[in-house]
Amino acid sequence: MKRIFLLFVAFLLLSGVSNMMAQNTNAVGKEKTRQIGERILPGMTFFDEVGEILEEKSFKVFQALDDGVALASGKGNGYSVYLGITALLYNKEGTPYYDEQVINASKHKCFRVVGIYKYTTRRGDTKTVPIVVLMDK
C-alpha cells in the first residue's frame, strides 16, 4: 500500500508541472557565471538577501527546465524517499541539470532559499515554490 501511495505521489508531481521550458541559450560545456538574482524564467522573484537554510540535505530533479534551473523534491535527514519540499534549484554556473539527478549537500554546504518561483501546472493550478541555491554554510 505504501508503494502504491509513493507511486501515486510521484505521478502527481510529474503530471502537475507545467511545460514552461525556456529556450536553452547556454551551450553545454560553455562556462557561464551569473549572479544570484539573474532571472532565467518568467515567474522568478529573488529576495534582497539570502533567506533561510532548509533542513533538506538532498534534492532529486523531476523536471530540468533550463541550464542551471530545475524543479526538484527534497529529502531531509532520516528519510529514504524524496517527498519533502518542492523547490526550483538554481545554480550560478548555469550547469545543466537532468531529470532524476540527485543533488546532495556536503557537510560544509547547505540549501538556502533565495527567492520564489510561480508557475502554472498543466491542469491550470498556480504553484509557488522556493528558489533554492546550494551554498557554503
Plain-language structure description:
The structure is a single chain. The chain has 137 residues and is mainly beta. The protein has one domain. The chain is built from 1 helix and 7 strands; from the N terminus they run H-E-E-E-E-E-E-E. It has a 7-stranded mixed sheet, with no helix packed on it. Strand 6 (109-120) and strand 7 form a beta hairpin. The longest helix is centred in the first third of the chain and has 15 residues, at 2-16. The model is unreliable at 1-32 (pLDDT under 50).
- Distance separating the two termini: 39 Å
Number of helices: 1
Detail the poorly predicted runs: 1-32
* Cα Rg: 15 Å
Features:
mainly beta; disordered N terminus; seven-stranded mixed β-sheet
What's the structural blueprint in terms of helices and strands?
Layout: H1 2-16, E1 44-46, E2 58-66, E3 69-75, E4 86-90, E5 102-104, E6 109-120, E7 126-136
Parallel strand pairs: 4-7
Antiparallel strand pairs: 1-6, 2-3, 2-5, 3-4, 6-7
